[in-house]
Specification:
mainly alpha
Length: 102
């Protein structure tokens, strides 16, 4: 009879240990999964940001090329004269500006 009480007490103690261990495992697994999820979300956002920045770099490089071409063209006096005539309706002496509807 004393053995049965000890066995019941021992069984309850083992069950309590198993229960506490199970809860600790569940808490640990939840913490690890939460951390992994946060890291993956951060990695994904950085990946998207990288893609956006790369496309912005391409646009800026294209803009730089266009501006370089414009700078080279503006070194030519003939281009400047033609540009002023077209854009600002600047005329040489004896020329007339006639506007044509689009």
């Amino acid at each position: 009879m004393v053995n049965k009480k000890r066995n019941k007490h021992k069984d309850k103690k083992q069950l309590l240990r198993f229960f506490v261990f199970g809860i600790a495992c569940i808490i640990s697994i939840t913490a690890v999964l939460t951390t992994i999820t946060k890291v993956w979300i951060e990695i994904y956002s950085k990946y998207k940001e990288k893609a956006e920045l790369e496309s912005e770099i391409l646009a800026l490089k294209q803009q730089e090329e266009d501006l370089t071409v414009d700078v080279e063209r503006l070194q030519d006096p003939e281009y400047i004269a033609r540009y002023l005539r077209e854009k600002y309706f600047y005329t040489k002496e004896g020329e007339y500006v006639i506007r044509m509807p689009d």
